[in-house]
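When time allows, look over one protein, given below as sequence and tokens. The question is which stretches look regular and which look disordered:
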Amino acid sequence: MGNETVLPKQTQVVICGAGTVANSVAYHLVQNGWNDIVVLEQKKIGSGTSHFGSGTLGLFKPIADRNLIMYSIKLYRRLQELGYDIGFKQCGSVNLAQTKDRLIALKRQMAYHQATGLHCEVVGNKELKNFHPYLKTEDLEGAIWVPEDAVAKPQAICKALAKLAKEGGACYVENCQVLQVLTENSRVKGVETNMGTVFCEYFVNCAGMWARDLGLKCSPRVRVPAIPAEHFYVTTSCFEPKLDSMLPCVRDYDSHTYVREWEGGFMVGGFELEAKPAFGGSGIPEDWKNKLPQDWNHFMPLWEKAIHRLPILKDVHNPVLTNSPDNFTPDGRWILGETPEVTNYFVSVGMNGNSLQGAGGIGKAMAEWIIEGVPTTELIPFSIQRFLDLHNNRQYLLQRTREVVGRHYSIMYPHQCEYKYARKLRCSPLYSVLEKRGAVFGTRMAYERAVYFDSTYKGKFYGDPLPRMPPGSFYKPKFFDFMREEYLACREGVGIIDMSSFSKIEIKSSGSQVVDYLQRVCSNDVNIPVGGIVHTGMQNELGGYENDCMIVRQNDNSFFMVSPTNQQTRTFEWMQRNLPPDHSVALTDMTSMYTVINVVGPKSRDLMSELSNSDVNLLPFTYKKVNVGYASDVMVMSFTHTGEPGYCLYVPSEYALHVYDRLMTVGRDYGARDVGCLTQRFMRIEKFIAFWAEELTSLTTPFEAGAGHRVKLDKEYFIGKFALQRQKEQGVTQRLVFFVLEDIDPDIHIWPWGGEPLYRNGEFVGTVTSAGYGFTLDKLICVGYIRHPGMTMGGSNDRPVVTNEFIMARNARYEIDIAGQRFLAKPHIHAPHIPHVNMDSTSRRYRPTVVSLKTV
């Protein structure tokens, strides 16, 4: 089979697009024995954005990206060995640092790359000349050399993969435009085109910058939030003498430029801080290649910086500027996976300026997902389920794309780098009030959340500008003192935290079917008394997490579920797909209907008693509906998300401002204070409470995460039971461990923020998943999974078991590598003992605070 002029009537898989990513998916499907495949291309193979591209292949990326790019490099090397002229060269790269903070950022990355098998090293200014003699190095702080980085020809690889896919049985149909993806019961049924209709079982959207529009040609519509931005690079003519073809790639992050050797000259590209949506932000024209302005005024600042870094460019005559548009996503990460709207509809798009880099690994991962029905590697950072409908709004995308391009080369300070465009979209009813009280906001799932509160803010009445996030730091955050005040309120008085962004789902049925359903999808026992609350995981067949949630039993046949903010789409879709086929159980997303306020601290009961005139002496993990102030039907739950005593209030949103006002006004007598989500995060870590997508993923289990007590293996079948049963009998090969850092000064040293390698007796055994400051311990803390040495990169099922004895052995010395410096880390199987200040230890008697006129 090969190129066809007639569209088949039926096939197993239809792939839309014939660029590098699409051809890689087709190639890997045929490599796995699936050859009933049709690839539809609206023009010619490789005529879309795969026609352009820098051809750079960089491994110095987060580990999930690196794993896929590493496979891409192996695949392209193999293609070259098979005789394909793809221009593959492992020339290496130098990653430059102009500032001390940039060098810290690079050293933090280098620490986990070295530990996990990627060769890289710090080089000084003088050494850099040995790698690249044309570089100006006097103004640099240093660089990282990565010898395994490579370059190749994007068009050649695109065509080579298509040829191999055809040889394996895939059928390519050119000049074929998709008009509609046909569905039946929200499952792929076929594809209607200008050449007729082909019925299929699977559909893969690899349509590049046309992917978003293609997603809308479906019922129900599929959201693919990615639009093209203008993306520029300059090529020079061949130098005399010709440049060494093995010159390493140069990434000058602080200048937002990259440089590589190109046909004896140079290619210079950039990721500008303020990008432009392609085609003026309107639709993609038919003759789009003729609508790409060569905007030298826009690119000139980057070109001048490139000349500063490589003075040899000053002598270049008639450099050629190419406008090479590509799809960019709202967060700068690829979009991969099966869509939540339509079963068997897969997406592989959003390559963010370099489709070649990930294409090999993405094609393999997507093919295996289609064949196996589940991902075979960790793809959570790229999941299409991380988005909501709002992310697919064209106006939102046009604004976000302006800055997401430049963020690829910006320093991402942990928890301190927020977007400036497309903000104030999803806001709690309390947003404006919190803003006036000094809140500095960040976003999660486009939801505005207070990161911390600036307690020195006096308000606009006094002429104060709204507080803003200060410049980021890898050391102690510049707003740390505000966080300590927030912690003390939670520890000694009352902390008030707006947590409205959490996803909320009501699950109900007319009969008892809802109980049977939840018992099947939950690993804990959810058949609890009415008014009870249970913390449970929802597992996949391998025992990994699909959800971590709280479930509240409202009555015999109605439950209310609370799960992490970024789980809103993923959880709803997973639960929906596991519903009984008789439609006896209904799911309703209630996220926007309730404002969630955590009332935390030892005086929270006194405050709530005064506000509600009700008995709020609730047993742990129970709830009741009470009146708070004048508001009725407020769900008061006896747990918090911080590990401290207190309550979680689920307030009908129309009452939110009133309830908050009462809490803060009456709460003044109890030391009430606003608390941000970063303080809450640190308090959770100190209590060893795991986070979704950090400690809890589809590849980690409750027994590995120390949550085995929430798994009820004695109940009837639930999804993942057999895998968990087997794991309990055989033991775990990785275990989540809490660490207290002993010889590090939080006021002087760089902090751990996540991703740092962990060593046991000098051998790499794991990676930090979450880190922060333990306010009660007064030390830096972190958590991470520990495995046996040599077992951290995966392997067979007979990996050695990790026991408590192994973790806590007397001769075990643990260290954490932070930007190249190792510090002693003391392990704990459970959270360290922290004196608990409970609500019963405070006086029940009301004692008014004397308020001076100055504070009124």
